[in-house]
């Protein structure tokens, strides 16, 4: 195939749809016979994923790699920031944590002995030598001019990559003319020349109403509008940003197996539940309301970036007591990663890895104890139910004289998790719910409801179908002939 320039989808702001558009183009290029790969130099997210080599990257790049039909790799997201508070983040470089940084110190850069720009550019160069084209994603807004000198991910990265930049604007939030024009006008002349097109995203209503607006944008920006992509409701792609939780269901529903995911303050890796959310046998909802927890057939305690603080909050807001009470009345409780730690007898942090709390009693549903440690465990795993991945800090083992009762037996001979009964269990394995055999096991106590709800659900086949539907949706509304012309022009 002819060599294509790298393409970067940059944004007028956060949550304009860059990640989804990039995933669409990863699938489009793959369908058209190319060998694409995603790249985002620096990502900020709690939703992460383990590569086959056992390193950590942002979930969005793992999704984009899946759309491209290739294994994910740390070079696709060499720098990941995982927020720990309003002011600090854990810094993950090439898949491994290197410590925490105050936001001010991080953006000054001068306080670090690591040349982050050199590291991310090196990752891009390695990726570009193997794949064609590289589908790049910017971060937030490209017009944060106060951060221009330290920006690693937007136009400075595009300059290094010699990428053609497509600016994505979100018309659904309003102000799209000002945000697109302003984003372009605030660039230096050199960076402005890199912007080869505009995509207007999340359009609602009659497309003909924007015909004049499209021409106006082209006239004032001197950049072609390559497409106006309508908002969609019937395509399901895993999303990385927690703002997506605002659109999730928040209450129970009759006639299906009701699954409540407990809304933790520091909830992470909520894409663990995307498969259940699409399963026609299940109604999945997010809640920290004690009455709604009591209505659930299955309660899931999700991953958390701060186990001890979320445990304290669960006790303060009454959810801990509601979960224990619901289990006594027959509800299933499943903990994943940090949620598994919460279910135990105690969580101990004598080294103050997470903060100032030394120890808190857990929910007491599992006879295990967790000791926090500074070393992060990151790896992909295979068990009797299928595959998943681990990303956690801390070690969990039976408490006192409790005997081991593993939930999962891993391919490498290790055991994972703890099971008191099919209605009370925990695991460190993220992605376990993507495996149909495990979901069938989880739902097996609810046979009466399942008989009314249909057949088992194949999430892997479902995801492949969604990537194809997303690609078709974007193809329909974007001028692909013009984009290929841009990517091949000398």
Please, how many helices? Answer: 17
Beta strand count: 26
Describe the global form: globular
Could you say which structural class the secondary elements and strand pairing correspond to?
A: alpha/beta
Measured distance between first and last alpha carbons: 16 Å
Low-confidence stretches: none
Biggest β-sheet: strands ordered side by side in the sheet: 2-9-1-10-11-12
Report the mean per-residue pLDDT as an integer: 91
From the structure provided, what is the oligomeric state, counting identical versus distinct chains? single chain
What value does the Rg take, in angstroms?
23 Å
- Percentage of β-strand residues: 25-35%
Q: Helical amount among residues, as a percent range?
A: 25-40%
Largest sheet: 6 strands, parallel
Fold and architecture overview:
The protein is 31% helix and 27% strand. The chain contains 17 helices and 26 strands. Strands 2-9-1-10-11-12 form a six-stranded parallel sheet, with helices on both faces. Strands 15-13-16-18-26-25 form a six-stranded mixed sheet. The longest helix has 19 residues, at 459-477. The chain is globular, with a radius of gyration of 23 Å.
Entry keywords:
490 residues, alpha/beta, 6-stranded parallel β-sheet, 6-stranded mixed β-sheet, 26 strands, 31% helix
What is the compact description of this entry?
By secondary structure, the chain is an alpha/beta fold. Helices cover 31% and strands 27% of the residues.
